[in-house]
Amino acid sequence: MSRTPHPALVLAAACVCQALVVLDVTLVNVALPSVAADLGFTPAGLSWVVNAYTLALGGLLLLGGRFADLVGHRAAMFSGLGLFGAASVLGGLAQSPGELIAARAAQGVAGAVLAPLSLTVIMVTFPEGTARSRAIGVWSMVAAGGSALGVLLGGALTQGLSWRWVLLINVPIALAALLLAAFSVRGTRTSPAGRLDVAGAVLVTAAVTALVHGTIQAAERGWGSAAALSSFAVALLAGAAFAGWELRVAPAPLVRFGVLRSRPVWVANVIVLFLGGTTVAGFYFASLYLQDVLHYTPLRAGAAFLPFCLGTVVGAMSSGPLTGRLGARAVMTGGLVLGAAGMVLFSRADADSTFLDGFLLPSVLASIGIGWCMVANTTLATTGAAPGEAGLVSGLLNAGRQIGGSLSLAVLTTVALAAAEHSGATSLAGARAAGYSRAFLVTAGFVLVAALVAAAATPSVTSSVRKAKQVALRQ
To answer: Could you list the residue ranges that cross the membrane (predicted)?
Structure first.
C-alpha cells in the first residue's frame, strides 16, 4: 500500500512547476535587446518572442487543464516538464528569429499543461478552507515573486553568460520539478475518462493569435490595412466557430460555459484578463525603458526589479489576512487602485529620470497592489469548485491571465510605437521614453477598469461560498 505524500511536498512540486511557467513570461524580457541584436528582430517582431509563449500558453491552457483531469496528474506533469525542458534546449540553440519563436511556442504548449495542473493538485490535496487558502497564498506568492525574479535572473544570465542561458536555465529547474513530482504527485484523475477537445483548442488559439497578429499589423501598416483587417476577420470567424462548436457540436466540450454562471468564477476571470495585461506589458516596457532609455546593463536592469519582487512578496503574504479581515472586494479593489497609481507614476518617467525619481516608488506601489489582488482573486475563483472541474477552473483563470497579457502587449506595442513616432523628441531615447510613457498610462486605464469591476461585482465571502457550492451540486 503506497503512502500518502505529505501535502508540503505536493505544494513544493506545484510551486516549482508554477515558477517554471511564470519565470519564462518575464525571464527573456531583459534579454530582448541582446536577442534582437544577435538574431536580427524588428521592433514590432521582437514582441513575438514574448507573444509566441503567452499565446500558446493562453490558448491551450483549457486543453491542458482538461488533459490533466483525464490522464492523471502524474502523467500530465511528467509530460509537461519533459516538453518544457526539450523546448528550452532548442530555444537556447536557436540561430534565427523563426527558430526562437517556434521554441517559445513549444514552451507555451508545455506551460499550458503545467500551469493549470499546479493549481489543480493544490485544490485536490488541500481541503477547502484555511488550509487551501494558505496553500494558494504560497502558490500565488511564487507566481508573483517568480515574475519579478525572472527579470533579475534574466539580467544576470544575459550579462554574465549569454541571452541563450535565459532559456537553458529551465533545464535544471525542470529536472528538479520532475524529482519532486516523482515523490509527491500521484496519478489522480479528477474527471472520468473521455476525449480531448482538440478542435476547440485549435479554434480558440487561432482566434486569439489572429487578434494579436492583427493588432501588430495595425501598428506596422495601419488599422485600415488589408493585413490588419484580414487578421481581425479571421479572429472573428474563429471565435464564432469556437462558440458554436463548444455549445452545439463538441462531444466533450473544452469549456462548459455553465461554470461561468458562478459569480466568483466570472468576476475573477474578468479581473485576471486586466491583471495579466498589467503584469506582462508592465515588465516588457519597464525592461525596455531601463535599457533603451536609461542605458542600464542587463544585470543592472534586472537588479532594478528587486523592489518590485519584494513588493509582490509582501503583497501576497499580507493578502490572506487582509482578505479575512476586510473581504475580497475591498482587498482586490484596493490592490488594483494601488496598481493603477503605480502605472500612472511609471508614465511620468522620461529620458532624464533616474531610478529613484522615476522607477522606485512606482515599482513598490504597483507590486504591492498586484500581490494583494492576485491571491484574493485566485482564492475567489477556486471557491467551491467541483473536484471534476478543478482543471477547468484552473485553466480558465490561467488562460485569462495569459490571453490578457498577449492582447494587452499587442495593443500597447501599437500605442508605444505611435506615441514615439509623433513625440517630436529630438533624440531616439526621448522618442522611446514618450512611447513607453503612453503605454504605461493606457495600462493604468486597464487596471482602473478592473478595479471598477472588482468594486461593483465581487460577491461577499459568504455569498461566494454558498453560490459556488450550489452550482457544484447542480452538476
So the answer is: 46-63, 75-94, 106-126, 138-157, 163-184, 196-216, 222-245, 266-287, 299-318, 330-347, 359-382, 403-420, 440-461
